């Protein structure tokens, strides 16, 4: 077994995601405790936390590709390994990458890169700059990946994907 197959990255990712989940729980408390704090306020405050989780996942995914191949050449092909999102022609990993890139670049003056916008549109997500928070591709994308908004479900997805990354090469 290759020494990098042992996943030394997953624990720090879990800790990061757990911290972000605790932040979401704190915001959920505000829904109950503050009269004027409604679902829209909650979504506005929770969206960046969810966006950060997708960036952490993206980093893990790309680092896993590097662990396996010692390069990021053809990384887009590696994103195609795994389960498709609903009826879309995109994988869960592609959607995670697309959401992370959207979160990082949504406020740029230029349009999103074609790869990012294609992934999000293929998954039925809206990406225009004037989008209402209730239609945010970050929020809606999370709902495509986990109905319960459970960020630890995303760790399960990428953990399975990482194992398939190691198995996939043996098939060729």
Automatic annotation (TrEMBL):
Residues 10-37 form a coiled coil. It comes from the Bacteria. Keywords: Coiled coil. It comes from Patiriisocius marinistellae. This is Uncharacterized protein.
